[in-house]
């Protein structure tokens, strides 16, 4: 789709920083003012930002004719250059769509639709077969072929909740420190990457990673630094950010970043430990971290940010009902180049299936593909004229792509059609993945 009349795309540069932040504050209302936001470094390189501008006659110019028009930035989008994004069994390059905003005075006239088409074209040019995003509002992106590929849970767990024992957990020591980029950037980055690649500490057959799909990694120095930034206006009245690091035999095995907030009530102090990110390399480290978090003085509960639906804590709680659980949509995925994306992941069971895909927005993807693979080995994916075993829209294929939403669950909603008996069962098992997808941070 092209932009409506009067609007045009324009690359953005460092000179546009103030206009970009100003527009962002129109799109996403915030209590933190323009001047403060402007001081923060942006975590995206400028060549990953695209603006939409509108040229207007300069009404204040005298005489009017011959005056240069004024140009206003009215919309923008950007994308993270993820180099090591986890897909089932492998890592790949993914474009992380972000900073999408249209000024309220220019909305609902097709600007977002045109920006999405531009973004998808850019992905193709850059050889990024997959686009991923977090949706500000969950109803926006399905129409563009994005499928809901990962869910997360947000837990509130009472202080002192009992945990089932894990061998080796008591062999950890814990360091509690103020979180700073100087002291923790490398530790956080290396543990975060390793936990995404090998959350269970083991691999899969055929050299596949038994990884956590959807796990976005902070692949540029700016992203790593921005993640640890802790400016007072963004604290929302809570304390500075802290980190607990658990070590075994002198080696860091996990960390959790958090802030405490204490309310002094008539009954006494009632504090909340607001968890930002918890990362552990094995069950013993997870147990050691939770043992610290669930026993901090003056607090009465731990509230997580996003954790995976199969996070260790859900199996460790002696009384799982003690945790209040809310579910939310996590990563949305768009397959920009269907055969390339299907070939970049691994499959959890032997499979030989012809899948018919419809893609109204990117018609070059429409067609039938034979996906053939041995469990966990590299697959072969070919376009074919053979009769389809299954058919579905590209949005549904994207929802199943990270292995967290089964093809069978989509078929329950009438979104996948089986043409060959048995193909739904085998394809559903193959497209699923042993570890649930999630991104530990919102991008
Ligand atoms: C990955 C991210 O960055 S997520 C952040 C997205 N940004 C925001 O939420 C900030 C505030 N909102 C905005 O900036 C804008 O309203 C946007 C970006 C959501 C939409 O931009 P617009 O230019 O108004 O969208 P556009 O006119 O192209 O609409 C395209 C379609 O999406 C629909 N749509 C747009 N916004 C929404 C929404 N919030 N919820 C549901 N549907 C929506 C429109 O109705 C339209 O539907 P149609 O094709 O059936 O007619």
Automatic annotation (TrEMBL):
PROSITE patterns: GNAT (PS51186). The active site is at 141 (proton donor), 443 (proton acceptor). GO terms for biological process: aminoglycoside antibiotic catabolic process. Residues 7-165 form the N-acetyltransferase domain. It comes from the Bacteria. SUPFAM superfamilies: Acyl-CoA N-acyltransferases (Nat), SCP-like. CDD domains: NAT_SF. GO terms for molecular function: aminoglycoside N-acetyltransferase activity. Pfam families: Acetyltransf_17, Acetyltransf_9, SCP2_2. Acetyl-CoA binds at residues 100-102, 108-113. Keywords: Acyltransferase, Transferase. Homohexamer; trimer of dimers. Belongs to the acetyltransferase Eis family. This is Predicted acetyltransferase. It comes from Flavimobilis marinus.
């Amino acid at each position: 789709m092209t932009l409506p009349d009067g609007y045009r795309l324009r690359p953005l540069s460092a000179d546009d920083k103030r206009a970009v932040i100003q527009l962002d504050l129109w799109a996403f209302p915030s209590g933190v003012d323009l001047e403060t936001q402007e001081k923060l470094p942006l975590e995206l390189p400028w060549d990953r930002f695209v603006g939409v501008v509108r040229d207007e006659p300069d009404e204040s110019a005298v005489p009017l004719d011959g005056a240069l028009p004024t140009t206003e930035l009215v919309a923008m989008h950007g994308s993270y250059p993820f180099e090591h994004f986890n897909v089932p069994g492998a890592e790949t390059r993914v474009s992380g769509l972000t900073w999408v905003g249209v000024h309220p005075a220019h909305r609902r006239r097709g600007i977002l639709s045109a920006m999405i088409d531009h973004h998808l074209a850019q992905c193709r040019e850059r050889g990024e077969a997959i686009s991923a995003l977090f949706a500000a509002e969950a109803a926006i992106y399905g129409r563009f072929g994005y499928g809901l590929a990962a869910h997360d849970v947000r837990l509130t767990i009472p202080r002192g909740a009992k945990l089932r024992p894990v061998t080796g957990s008591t062999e950890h020591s814990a360091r509690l420190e103020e979180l700073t980029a100087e002291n923790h950037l490398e530790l956080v980055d290396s543990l975060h990457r390793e936990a995404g690649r090998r959350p269970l500490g083991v691999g899969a057959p055929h050299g596949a990673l038994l990884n956590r799909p959807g796990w976005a990694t902070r692949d540029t120095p700016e992203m790593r630094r921005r993640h640890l930034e802790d400016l007072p206006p963004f604290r929302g009245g809570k304390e500075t950010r802290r980190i607990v690091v658990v070590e075994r035999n002198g080696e860091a095995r996990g960390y959790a970043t958090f802030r405490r907030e204490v309310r002094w009530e008539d009954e006494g102090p009632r504090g909340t430990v607001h968890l930002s990110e918890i990362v552990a390399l094995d069950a013993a480290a997870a147990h050691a971290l939770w043992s610290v978090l669930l026993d901090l003085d003056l607090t009465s509960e731990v509230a997580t940010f996003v954790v995976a639906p199969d996070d260790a804590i859900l199996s460790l709680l002696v009384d799982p009902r003690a945790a209040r659980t809310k579910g939310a949509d996590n990563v949305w995925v768009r397959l920009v180049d269907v055969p390339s994306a299907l070939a970049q992941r691994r499959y959890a069971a032997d499979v030989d299936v012809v899948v018919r895909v419809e893609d109204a927005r990117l018609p070059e993807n429409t067609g039938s593909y034979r996906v053939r693979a041995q469990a966990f080995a590299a697959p072969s994916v070919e376009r074919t004229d053979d009769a389809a075993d299954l058919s579905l829209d590209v949005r549904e294929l994207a929802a199943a792509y990270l292995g967290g939403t089964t093809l069978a669950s989509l078929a329950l909603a009438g979104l996948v059609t089986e043409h060959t008996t048995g193909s739904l069962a085998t394809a559903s098992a193959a497209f699923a993945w042993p570890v649930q997808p999630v991104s530990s941070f919102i991008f």
